[in-house]
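Appendix B. One record, verbatim.
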Amino acid sequence: MATIGMKELAKQLNLSTATISKALRDSYDISEETKQRVLKLAKKLNYIPNAHASSLRAKKSKTLAMVIPEVADSYFAQSINGVEAVAQAAGFHVLVYLTHEQYEKEKSILKELLNGRVDGVLISVTSQSKDVSHINELKDAGIPIVFFDRVFENIGNGEVITDDFNAAYLLTQHLINQHCKSIAFLSFSNSLSINMLRLNGYKSALQDNGFNMEKKNLLACLNQEDENKVLIEKHLHRKNRPDGIIASVEKLITPLYLACQAAKLSIPEDIKIAAFSNLANAAILAPPITTITQPAFEMGKTAASLLIKAIKGQTIDADEQKIVLPSKLEIRKSSSGASF
């Protein structure tokens, strides 16, 4: 007879695997009726729990895993500090894992975390991530997961994000107010919801101001700085080049500045630039760059607090399952020509 797992119980009862796991552990936040339904089917199907995995989970490691694309990005560096501030206060250690924007690396890391090394996982997924089966494996094992910044919706125990649509709208509107007539958008992923929200915010601002959204102004960038510099420079040499550019992620700022320099375009006189970035030195670039700054430290703190709450088996309220924190527009010389 094939082994029956929590996934099969969840499917037949139309419940989540997390609910099945809690019911089997007699968790206080699962109703008695649901517990009895789960136990009755488990008995009928001769469900046998994974004793090894259960014993590993019973021995709390007091350790959180933080799975992120990189640390060179200022946003992620600041979010680590936020996570550690909460974790240390609660008596937890933090292990940081880097995926380097590689989906296969992300899968490998999450598979390794099934061994009981950590009590819960904070994750910001890679720009290549599409399939969620590796994340569902963690859920099936009863390991709490909280997403932040780059998320898969309605999968984990909670999400902490910023309002990327409105932030991109605000950034685009600012360039329009600075008399830009042709605004390009540099994207970094075709699959991440965060990129699509920023792209849609950009498109919406154009539409609301009577601009046509031109496909030639959408540039899909890569994960290599040198290649992106070449792509952007080529874009700047085309006929009817843009007079404004939005970089949707921080890593595109350096190749963007280098491409403008190579194309002999002066910022902001010839072209105005703005970006999503938490760079500490944004104000001292030449010229200082206009940015949408995310509350990275606060996002890390909030995500860690949610995860620890889930680990302790406490109820996560409906308004906590998706937390949206505001970003801030910082106007500097790269887009306005004025000093701030």
